[in-house]
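re: ur question from yesterday

yeah so i grabbed the chain u mentioned. its 409 aa long if i counted rite. heres the sequnce exactly as i have it in my notes:
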Amino acid sequence: MSIPRTIPVFFFSLIIVACLFVPSLYAAEFLYGLDVLQRSGFRELDGKRVGLITNAAGVSVSGQAGYRVLLNGGVDVRFIMAPEHGFSVQAAAGEQVGDRSIGDSLRVYSLYGASRRPDRKRLEEIDVMLFDLQDVGARCYTYISTMRYAMEACQKAGVSFMVLDRPNPVSPVPADGFMLDPDYVSFVGAVPVPFIHAMTVGEIARLLKKCCYPDIDLHVVRMQGYSRGLFADEYRGFRFVSPSPNIRNLETALVYPATVFLEAANISEGRGTVAPFMQFGAPYIARPDRLKLLLDAQRLPGVSFRTVRFKPVSGKFKGVECRGLRMNVTDRYVFEPFRTGVAILAVLQKSYPDSLRLDEKGDFFDKLAGTPLLRRMLTSEHSVEEILAASRLQVHAFEQRYPDRFIYR
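ran it thru and got these structure tokens back, copy pasting raw so excuse formatting
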């Protein structure tokens, strides 16, 4: 019996469709900048005395600590410097961290203690400073502030600066939020990028060289197999190691820009609970179901809310029952963290203006936002759309000024 000619064509078509719908199976091998440097045999560091800014989240695709990868490769690592939360990523936000040692000889100097800048005497001991920290994509997350301070110190000391690039874990989320007002520069806002910047640390380092540190000897070790259109957990080999105590998974990193502003308001942002930044509430919220109705009416894309009760074991309202809402990202490719954050703040401000007390910690709120404009527009009850329009004008101007800011497609 003969086989119809249409059958081979049918199966060939199925193979083509499978290739189109399962691209990750055929994607290029993913490597961190650290791994790319290792595969080069660390040639660029031959004969160099090296300092390393990193923490426990700075691992290779095999899960090995970055400093171990360097030492095992024969790199002359003189010391480590650690950012906020310390090398072990266990210190609370804002908690000062002291120096320590790893083993008998490798010193870890704190960049979140008496000073947040590398000491000039330490820099005299090295030829190149490596930077290998996992960012989360929001300007107020202090690791890119640490990078800026380190680049400034290295330029002054004549020390080369090398960034071992890592993914922006929420890269598909486009740039959004207000730009940094020069009058509101602080450690939670030190880099002139939008609040959600959509860039890797390597791309930000190149921008800082262009705008601020033209004389620094900068080199970015690019990742392999990275695309700006993918979330970090879509790469084979990506390992989510918490870069700070309350960013415990990628979903938290995604919603962080929506709820971090609550740190400067009289409401719990979920610290001290099982779901920091994923939920918010306060004792004075008697009817969280009403908040849910108001937020549901905003038709926010890619997110839903449910009422919740929780009792923080630390932070604001410690030991006191709070009522509020918990977020669930239903479609991360359409979710807009900044829009969601503005909507949450607008609803809370309209419902509880006396209890939320945005002006009480106005200075801190403005530093997180990078501008006083967001708080002023909220307290004068501008609409969500008006606030978004004002911020997007600023983002558009930034994008026009730096059209070549990306390394990766």
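noticed a couple things. The mean pLDDT is 94. also The first helix runs from residue 6 to 21.
anyway ttyl
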